[in-house]
Amino acid sequence: MCGIAGLIGYKGDGLRAIAAMNERMKDRGPDAGGIWQDEEMNIFLGHRRLAIRDLSESGAQPMVSASGRFVMVYNGEIYNSDELKDKLISDGYMKASDFRSESDTEVLLEAAEAYGLYDTLRFCKGMFAIALYDRKEHVLSLARDRAGEKPLYYGFCMGGCFAFASNIACFREIEGFNNRICRDILPVYFSHGYIPAPYSIYENIYKLLPGTILTIREPFDYFDPVADGDLESYYGHNRSGACFFEHKVVDAASDSEIEHYLSEGPGHIYRIYWSMEEAARRGRQNPFRGSMDEAVLETKRLLKEAIRGQMISDVPLGAFLSAGIDSPTIVSLMQEVSPARVRTFTIGMNDPRYNEAEIAGEIAAILGTDHTRMDIDDKDARAVIPMIPDIFGEPFGDSSQIPTYLVSKLTRQHVTVSLSGDAGDELFGGYLSYGSAEHTWNSISRLPYIIRRPLGSLAEASLGRGSDVWKAKGSFLQAIDERDLHMRKMDPMGLGRALYNGDGKAPLYAGSIRAAGLGDVITEARLIDMSMYHPDDILVKVDRTAMAVSLESRVPLLDRDLMEFAWSLPGQYLRKGDTGKLILRQLLSEYVPPEVTNRPKKGFSIPIGKWLRDGDLRSWADSLMDETFIRNAGYMDADAAMGIWRDYLRTGNWNPQIWHMLVFNQWLRKYER
Questions:
Q1: DSSP strand E in 303-397: where?
Q2: Percent of the chain, pLDDT > 90?
Q3: Does the predicted TM-score (pTM) go above 0.85?
């Protein structure tokens, strides 16, 4: 786990700027830092290293290929790098004695030169953000892993300077950076509490979409993926091999074709090497035909293989453990393949309504792990809150960020790498909201949309006055399709739109496009969550909080083969009534008695609503919900914001937008005043 950064065409002191960007990412890589520069081309690459494999200087970055042609900075882990290394040797590109290190970085770099980045990434299993520079052709390629585990921001600033980084805060380290806040994405942020890819909080700075390679060449001219139509093409042709630029879509079979399009076109091109939507569609077209027991066995085989690969490390390793299904399943299989007791970590709370630590402790005792627990309260939360703007770099309003940071901090005191159980709900149909969406859609879809829409508008406008239930029902009736319904259920009152002060144009992102036509409400909901909520909320939370304490987090359920298999599973293997994750439940029952794991899930959360109203956090919140500040800033509708806040103080009625507002105002005060 590391941090990467780069600058091209910066008119100031490039060496000073890249050094400042590196320093800003020091928590991502406290063990070492490096810079590579090409003064003639005015290119600077930076890297911060958290050493996990090959702890020697041989694994340092930026790394230059053996031929000298390619330079790479890379953040992540390639779990099948030994297979890739064997392939390089057997195909005659390298001899065993040619390798200068035992790092996966060198293997990835040499493979990219031998096979091209596209074919290399298709082969690789791992999590990564990569920048690869071709010194001969003066071409830079940026790439991100399939599920979006590792962050990669890129874009233009300072009158045409191209920059990229693992942390959006790095852009603020570039002297003279003055990109404006992206107002168009604010209603989405206020609705959901995070900013979905490809957008960031700043104009002209974007997140690279998962499973995608962006290639740009000299002279690295300005482009805008939204205005130019690149993004529209992406969502319209979301399949592996598709390349898009300026409303054009082509299928390139080789890197030489990419070079042709780069030279003939606008100088940049996006290329999809793996698509979540394509994997879901393929799974629906080729469903698993075996029995439930056979599905459990195959899930176990794939997950155990993924865990075995992700436990490779030259530093101490452990796992997060909570109650429920996902992390206990991961830990069970870790303990089965490990020759020693697995280190596990959990946090508890004094409030029993939120405390899962006792159950996690029972599970740890059953599995025989070396378990560590820490209890937290509102004072611990208060200590974390001032760090939130620096940890995330842009507004991020998932309040479980606080316990996630605290469990990461606890874990880092003992190990350097930790595995987690994230993605179980999305891949295996665990959320209660999936059943709710299915029930609602089955009810409303009996009416044609042409009838539902005016009825819903009427209910929302008239019956909805003073009735949140009717307002939500009115909104649901206006849903165009299953995906639209799922998105509306995330903000049923439309508070995100109400809070935004302005009109603006509707941004195009995964949650705003139409359903994929998968013929199944729950599959559509899972797909939108894996395309947006999981990479832009869950994985952001896990990556940023872990990296804030220099802890590498790994997510075995996001293994390529396991994800593709999960999309092929019939719905009856995932859910029955209100119970989800049937396959994972049956798998876990081999290790932990169901009566332990089937207790009501409390969620990895904290009583933030109570703490803000009655606890030590009240004064902090009051200072941020200052009406004069909100009006002067001009990003929120002050009347709507203060109405929500005062209603909460008066009645205790909590909604997530309260935390979204607080985190936004905290970020705004620190960075934009």
A1: 317-320, 343-349, 370-376
A2: 80
A3: yes
